């Protein structure tokens, strides 16, 4: 069998700049050179640095009230930051580094590519200008180490579930995404909150007052006569702070009429008397019959 032939090196043909060049010709000539320059401009140290520069992400659990009112919450993070032992230098304290003879200590090397002269990060020292002989025992010469830090996170009032904030920690940055728990009392719609208030039949018919739980305090709610179930009462400015503007949202109270399951004898007689006078009833009412004279009677 014939041995496979080695791939022939591709010849780089420079364009004749004495004549006009089309955009396609220039692009065809520039494409392999971009690849060459990209290969020389990269380094292993650059890849590590990219990893370290990426902000870390954390999840913080909040109650409904904490998210609505804001809170300062202590949080523990494990973050890649400047090594405290070597102060980010990479070498063991008390030891010296060697001068990089490859780049002359400049951290940059010169690469000749035909008519062009390129300057890129030194591949020997990674741009440091020096060679670490005795790496730090903590960070192993990288200059970065994982550290556990307790930080105080100022949660702004009005944050919503899933929102993310950026916060500096030491010389790094972290992203914190909030997870807000549901409230057993309130429902949220932007800066507005909604809650239910149960009232009696007498309060719905005659009106009165009722006490409702508010976000900041107990609210005395005025119940107008003839209040219907699911009717909404608006309490202006009693909602959540608007995080991207001024002012507060509103608190909408949804009225729910509580119907008793059992009545005393007196209550039942009173309701039957009221039922006799009703004129807009569709159907029948238990305990009330219609007489021949058109009057309703309890049948007693």
Automatic annotation (TrEMBL):
Domain CR-type: from-to ranges: 70-148
Gene Ontology biological process terms in this record: mitochondrion organization; negative regulation of apoptotic process; protein folding
Zinc finger (CR-type): 70-148
GO CC aspect terms: cytosol; membrane; mitochondrion
One annotated GO molecular function: heat shock protein binding
UniProtKB keywords: Acetylation, Chaperone, Membrane, Metal-binding, Methylation, Mitochondrion, Repeat, Transit peptide, Zinc, Zinc-finger
Location in or out of the cell: Membrane; Mitochondrion
Membrane-crossing segments per the record: none
Gene3D superfamilies named among the record's database cross-references: Heat shock protein DnaJ, cysteine-rich domain, Urease metallochaperone UreE, N-terminal domain
Transit peptide keyword on record: yes
Listed InterPro entries: Apopto_cytoskel_mod, DnaJ_C, HSP40/DnaJ_pept-bd, HSP_DnaJ_Cys-rich_dom, HSP_DnaJ_Cys-rich_dom_sf
The protein, known as: DnaJ heat shock protein family (Hsp40) member A3
């Amino acid at each position: 069998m014939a041995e496979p032939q080695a791939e022939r090196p591709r010849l780089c043909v420079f364009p004749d700049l004495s004549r006009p060049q089309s955009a396609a010709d220039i692009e065809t000539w520039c494409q392999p050179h971009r690849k060459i320059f990209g290969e020389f401009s990269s380094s292993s140290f650059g890849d590590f640095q990219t990893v370290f520069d990426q902000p870390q992400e954390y999840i913080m659990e909040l109650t409904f009230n904490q998210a609505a009112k804001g809170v300062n919450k202590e949080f523990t993070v494990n973050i890649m930051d400047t090594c405290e032992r070597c102060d980010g230098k990479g070498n063991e304290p008390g030891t010296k580094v060697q001068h990089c003879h490859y780049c002359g200590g400049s951290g940059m090397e010169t690469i000749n590519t035909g008519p062009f002269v390129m300057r890129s990060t030194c591949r020997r020292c990674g741009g440091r200008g020096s060679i670490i002989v005795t790496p730090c025992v903590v960070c192993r010469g990288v200059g970065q180490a994982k550290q556990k830090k307790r930080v105080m996170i100022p949660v702004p009032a009005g944050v919503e579930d899933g929102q993310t904030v950026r916060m500096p920690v030491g010389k790094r940055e972290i992203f914190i995404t909030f997870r807000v728990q549901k409230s057993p009392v309130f429902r949220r719609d932007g800066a507005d909150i909604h809650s239910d208030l149960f009232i009696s039949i007498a309060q719905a018919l005659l009106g009165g007052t009722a006490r409702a739980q508010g976000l900041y305090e107990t609210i005395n709610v005025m119940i107008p006569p003839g209040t219907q179930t699911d009717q909404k009462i608006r309490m202006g400015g009693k909602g959540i702070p608007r995080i991207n503007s001024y002012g507060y949202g509103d608190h909408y109270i949804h009225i729910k009429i509580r119907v008793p399951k059992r009545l005393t004898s007196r209550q039942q007689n009173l309701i039957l008397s009221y039922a006799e006078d009703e004129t807009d009833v569709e159907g029948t009412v238990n305990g009330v019959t219609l007489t021949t004279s058109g009057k309703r009677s309890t049948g007693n």
